[in-house]
Task: inverse folding
């Protein structure tokens, strides 16, 4: 290893401060630079970036394959919409939009983690849950489906959801700039929160379990509990993203539960970099920007592009852009470093054994 | 009495449908440990094959039962050669890559055919159970599912190909030492699973609307059934289909199909909590 001037720990703290400073600059600066349309776009970017962070945490750090993260986004969005219509004031609905997905995730997670089912099954079950929520919400058209005064509206969705207002003052809703401050502020807060969480004892145990579940268990930690907590935390973050997503459009429909939503967030994380926090944010902004740009044309379905990106990254750049860029920089920075790769095991005519997944 | 007969008939149909949509996934996931999230889209391609063939004046039975497995089998072959073969042993990556393929296929079909629901005419009429009418086509479904599952069982148990296939799946290195080329066997297995998905899509085309997004509804049910079935793919698929199909149809009959799906999921989650290895993980271990 080349000697570093700064220790890894201090470098990482500096990186964190740099990201927060850049975020604050964008938070304050954006309303002066962009017009209203630009701000609306940026608000969407912030919402999907929070969503990407929820996936980046649960997948990249806790090692849980949540393939139906859109379920929590949608639950949060619907919870906010219903509560905001019924209550008028938005303070409690924001909390509800975080709490409802967390409760749902805790219940679902109990069966999954305490059933000790393997990663692949967790992926499939979360995916199924989001598909079923999508179908369920689609059937709720008609005035008999309502919670309080809020009609769920089925596939038509719920129009004119009241935006966030100044706490305690329902007659003072936030304008576009105000919602931008809330969205970007939330993104920064979630990022900082996850950084602190991961640096804490809890975060280290979570990563230890990802690295080697059996070993962590032998040391005395209960992987089931930590996975359940991680899953629940990520659901809460996704719910918050849903709340901001509703505020971005003032409208919510069952498409938040659609497979393409869950797929997008996986792609955000994969493109940005698995196992990082900044990566998912950058991936989300990059891909969402591409989706918006592709939305302008109608000859090719956007799913085709998403699918191609996903396959290309899995095959060619599985680590994602941020870690790949870091590795490149490190390689340029250090003089020819000895190869850290283990010698390749003997292969049989290019055939590797099939997955040695343990069936539990 | 008539109603009981109708419900019983629907339950059997539901079970047959579940067997059809699950069998191909059982081969690909159960044997190869490839999480094929594009399974629903392979079915969708089978359905589109049927639609296109019927539009071109091909006999409905050929369009429904012969062409879809052939076409989708070839597509599966191409997918295996271009993407899947680089990912053996990386289960999570197969999940991501096949999801990418599934999105790509949805996008491709939407681009080619447009986002509209197409239909295939039902080739047979209906009959009466007492005071209720029921579709004769359900017999086609039941018959196809029965033949498919029996054929798979026979293929795996009694043929040399089945023996090689099982050996290569259990221990590719040992099989290779005995003169089998595992890569070719994987390729054939993936194509076989894809062909079964295509068959399911073709047979289901007349009773479900054919649209680019139709696969999503099936892939979830198929996976849950495979997981519930456990390691013995054919027996497990049969047993889990019987259990979940029964629950789904009974609940759907009392409430609505969507609630039936919810009941199916809840039943599956409970089953996996009790039997983490699926039904054949605990019982009937030696079966195929």
Result:
């Amino acid at each position: 290893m080349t000697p570093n001037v700064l220790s890894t720990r201090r470098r990482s703290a500096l990186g964190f401060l740099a990201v927060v400073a850049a975020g604050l600059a964008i938070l304050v600066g954006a309303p002066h630079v962009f017009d209203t349309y630009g701000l609306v776009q940026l608000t969407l970017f912030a919402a999907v970036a929070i969503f990407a962070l929820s996936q980046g945490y649960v997948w990249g750090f806790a090692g849980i394959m949540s393939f139906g993260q859109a379920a929590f986004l949608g639950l949060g969005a619907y919870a906010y919409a219903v509560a905001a219509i019924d209550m008028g004031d938005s303070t409690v609905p924001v909390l509800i939009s975080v709490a409802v997905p967390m409760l749902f995730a805790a219940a679902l997670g109990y069966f999954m983690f305490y059933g000790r089912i393997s990663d692949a099954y967790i992926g499939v079950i979360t995916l199924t849950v989001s598909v079923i929520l999508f179908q369920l919400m689609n059937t709720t058209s008609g005035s008999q489906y309502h919670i309080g005064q809020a009609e769920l509206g089925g596939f038509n969705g719920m129009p004119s959801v009241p935006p966030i207002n100044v706490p305690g003052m329902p007659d003072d809703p936030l304008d576009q700039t105000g919602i931008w401050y809330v969205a970007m502020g939330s993104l920064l807060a979630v990022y900082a929160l996850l950084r602190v969480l991961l640096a804490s004892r809890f975060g280290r145990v979570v990563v230890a379990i990802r690295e080697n579940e059996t070993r962590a268990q032998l040391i005395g930690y209960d992987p089931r509990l930590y996975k359940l907590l991680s899953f629940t935390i990520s659901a809460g973050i996704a719910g918050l993203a849903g709340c901001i997503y509703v505020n971005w459009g003032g409208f919510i429909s069952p498409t938040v539960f659609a497979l393409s939503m869950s797929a997008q967030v996986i792609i955000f994380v994969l493109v940005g970099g698995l196992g990082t926090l900044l990566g998912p944010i950058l991936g989300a902004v990059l891909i969402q920007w591409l989706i918006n740009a592709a939305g302008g044309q109608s000859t090719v379905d956007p799913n085709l592009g998403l699918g191609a990106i996903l396959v290309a990254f899995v095959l060619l750049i599985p680590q994602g852009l941020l870690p790949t860029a870091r590795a490149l920089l490190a390689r340029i920075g250090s003089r020819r470093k000895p190869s850290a790769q283990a010698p390749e095991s003997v292969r049989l005519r290019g055939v590797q054994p099939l997955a040695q997944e343990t069936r539990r | 009495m008539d109603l009981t007969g109708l419900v019983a008939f629907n339950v059997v149909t539901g079970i047959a449908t579940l067997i059809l949509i699950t069998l191909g996934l059982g081969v690909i996931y159960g044997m190869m440990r490839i999480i094929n999230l594009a399974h629903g889209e392979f079915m969708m391609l089978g359905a589109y094959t049927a639609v296109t063939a019927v539009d071109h004046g091909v006999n409905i039975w050929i369009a429904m039962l012969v062409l879809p497995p052939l076409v989708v089998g070839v597509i599966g072959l191409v997918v295996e050669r271009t993407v899947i073969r680089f990912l053996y042993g990386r289960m999570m990556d197969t999940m991501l890559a096949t999801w990418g393929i599934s999105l790509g296929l949805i996008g491709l079909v939407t681009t080619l055919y447009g986002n509209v629901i197409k239909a295939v005419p039902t080739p047979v009429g209906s009959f009466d159970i007492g005071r209720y009418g029921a579709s004769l086509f359900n017999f086609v479904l039941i018959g196809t599912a029965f033949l498919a599952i029996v054929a798979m069982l026979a293929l795996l148990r009694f043929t040399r190909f089945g023996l090689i296939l099982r050996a290569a799946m259990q221990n590719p290195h040992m099989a290779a030492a005995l003169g089998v080329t595992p890569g070719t066997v994987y390729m054939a297995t993936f194509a076989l699973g894809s062909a079964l998905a295509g068959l399911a899509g073709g047979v289901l085309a007349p009773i479900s609307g054919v649209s680019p997004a139709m696969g999503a509804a099936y892939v979830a049910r198929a996976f849950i059934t495979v997981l519930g079935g456990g390691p013995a793919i054919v027996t497990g698929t049969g047993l889990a289909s019987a259990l979940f199909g029964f629950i789904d149809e009974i609940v759907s009959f009392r409430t609505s199909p969507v609630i039936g799906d919810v009941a199916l999921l809840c039943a599956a989650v409970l089953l996996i909590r009790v039997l983490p290895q699926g039904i054949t993980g605990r019982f009937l271990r030696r079966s195929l």
Summary: The beta strands of chain A are 146-147, 150-151. Residues 223-249 of chain A form the longest helix (27 residues). Chain A has a mean pLDDT of 85.
